[in-house]
Amino acid sequence: MRSKLKKSVKRREDLEDARLLEEIANGDQACLSILYDRYAGSAFGLAWKICNSRAIAEDVVQEAFMAVWQRPGSFDSGRGSAGSFLLGIVHHKAVDAVRKEESVRRREANFAADLSDSSGDEILDAAWLTIRRQTVVRALRQLSDVQREALELAYLHGLTYSEVAARLRIPLGTAKTRMRDGLIKLRDILDESAVT
Amino acid sequence: MTMTHDELRELVPIMALGALPVEEEQQVGAHVKFCAECSRLLDEYQSIADVMAMAVRPLAPPADLKDRIMAQARKTAPVDMQPAPSVLQPTRRRSSFVRWAGVTAAAAVTLMVIGLGAQQLVEQNQKVQQQEALLAAQREALDLLSSGETSVLTMNPTEEAGTVTGQVFVSRESGRAAVLMNGLNEPDGDSIYTLWLIENGNEEPVVDFGPDQSGLAVLSVDQVDSDVTLAVTLEPQRGNTSPQGPILAVAYRA
Q1: ipTM of this predicted structure
Q2: Distance between B30 CA and the closest CA of chain A, angstroms
Q3: What is the DSSP string of B111-136?
Q4: Do the Cβ atoms of A33 and B61 come within 8 Å?
């Protein structure tokens, strides 16, 4: 009886992301801690890539996790996974931060396609995250070069579409078209692999 | 500059990527709050854009970052646990209609204590005061239009607008505004048109209104600041404090 009961109670560490957010909404700090352990590496990597500043990236990640802590109810499972939800917040805050800091110049030297599959010492050992990452990387590689370039500059480097157009020396309309078409194609590819 | 629906829709995927400059982001953000089609598109594009975040290599954050976050979490409870405020705070942008509505409500309560036999008198009194308020608002609007110091915004119709069109005339000096709505049908049953002001994501009902016999309504708003969106909805009943009905037209003051 006891073992049955024990089996029926999931450990917090085993909870799915969406359940973690439900528990966070009830004020469960342990679940926030678990969510951090799962996504802090991805969040910090994304924030650093956009901000190109360790200090700003730390602030961004802290703000993002606090936003999730304070407003977990804003997560809508119909709009994607909890991981995407969290990383979307990180992205939004990182872009805000980078525009405030006007650190575009600092990022000039750093711009290079960074979709390597290789692992390093700093990469967290989270197998399932790695698989998802590789799926997204493969999907991005299926885009045309110009679409991928426009999406990366906009999303992963925090540039506005006019900055993307200036960087690539293309008309504003062309920049917008490449981004839109790239997103649509990415959606079609990911739909097949059911990543979202 | 006011953008058309098609122009705004074109910018939705760019917004999902976080690649709009601030001013355009505010305009598109205000639009999607009231356009079901663009709101759905934004959700769709946003979910795809956010997947791109997973393509970035994870990096180990500083060891003490988790401690800082958890320490901050211990000091603050999730907002979603706290009960939401049940009453919207009035703001300085209340229209003359709203001021009138308060007076009418008080008058109606006073008359109700006289007895049910006075009900007809109360209703008649309300209608007279409603007409007076409408005339006063129209006079204010006409004064504003004749001042010559106005900027004009188009109330962009949504797909559910039918024949509804409208314009907003805003005094550059005072921020006072007149809203002219055309092509309005007489609402069915308890339905009522409502004008809203939206600022920083907060919706404030300005006035419930109906058209005259020609399908026209002229509304007066005490102040319309910049970065504010005006919207007209068809609500299922009078007095809603948040929009429930379809959005018919939207204008944004940059």
Answers
A1: 0.73
A2: 17
A3: HHTT-GGGHHHHHHHHHHHHHHHHHH
A4: no
